[in-house]
Amino acid sequence: MLKKLLPSLIGLTLATGAIADEAAVKKAFEAKFGAKAESVTKSGYLGLYEIYADGQIIYSDEKASAFIIGPLIDGKTLKNVTQERMNKLTAIKWSDLPLERAVKQVRGDGKRVLASFEDPNCGYCKRLAKELLKLDNVTVYTFLYPILSPDSVEKSKQIWCADDRAKAWNDWMVDGRAPAGRTDCDTSAIVRNQEFGRKLNINGTPTLFFADGERIPGAVPLAKIEEKLAKTAGK
Questions:
Q1: Contact, 132 vs 226, CB < 8 A?
Q2: What pLDDT is recorded for position 143?
Q3: Which domains, from first to last, does the chain contain?
């Protein structure tokens, strides 16, 4: 219901009594829209409160007189505050990842860890695959997550059924050599990855997860990946 209501909130002003804390903002939001707010916190900008509900971030003043939808950008650093908060709010426990259902690649000592959900026909994923080859002392877990087309499912099955899954993955994603092997092995891992990804609300590829459970969507620059791996090493 909330997703249907959100577009109508833009520019909408709602009169209420004075509200001065998170609990009151939460109560007012839930009363108005009949949706549960998972968290309400001060955003640190313009006195706005951050409301996290239905997998989205909405902002409100302390009186709940207006609601704002869309990214909040820091005026000094130009960082996307909303996206950074979403990355943290949608974090998971690393131990919850079913790593046995991923294509595993170990480089160097393999102590640093990184997981990604990727579609074999995703252009951004191919760009990411080339970047990840430059990493050292890391273990990369790639979850085959075909969501773009039936051909994505076919390629995922061929890669999963290959004798050397990592080689088959890199041959296609990095070198453009399409997989041509069989698809009649046990490919239930791919179906289960799709189900697991939907539970995590993974709607695009690539989506990365780090050792602290934080997720970062998109083809992240290598420098940012290195920075994040350094911060999470040993966790």
A1: no
A2: 98
A3: 2-89 (3.10.450.70), 94-232 (3.40.30.10)
The residue assigned the tokens 């595993």 is 104
**Does the structure show a pLDDT above 90 at 122?**
yes
Read off the tokens for 126: 């191919």
Higher pLDDT, 210 or 181: 210
Residue written as token pair 């877990």: 141
Tell me, letter by letter, the H, E, C secondary structure of 98-110. Answer: CHHHCEEEEECCC
pTM across the whole model: 0.76
15, pLDDT greater than 80: no
- Quickly state the pLDDT bin for 10 (edges 50, 70, 90): very low
Q: Is the dihedral of CA 28, 33, 36, 40 positive or negative?
A: negative
Q: What does the alpha-carbon distance between residue 71 and residue 55 come to, in Å, rounded to a whole number?
A: 14
Token readout for 25 is: 């903002």
Q: Confirm if 57 and 80 have CB atoms less than 8 A apart.
A: no
> 110 pLDDT exceeds 90?
yes
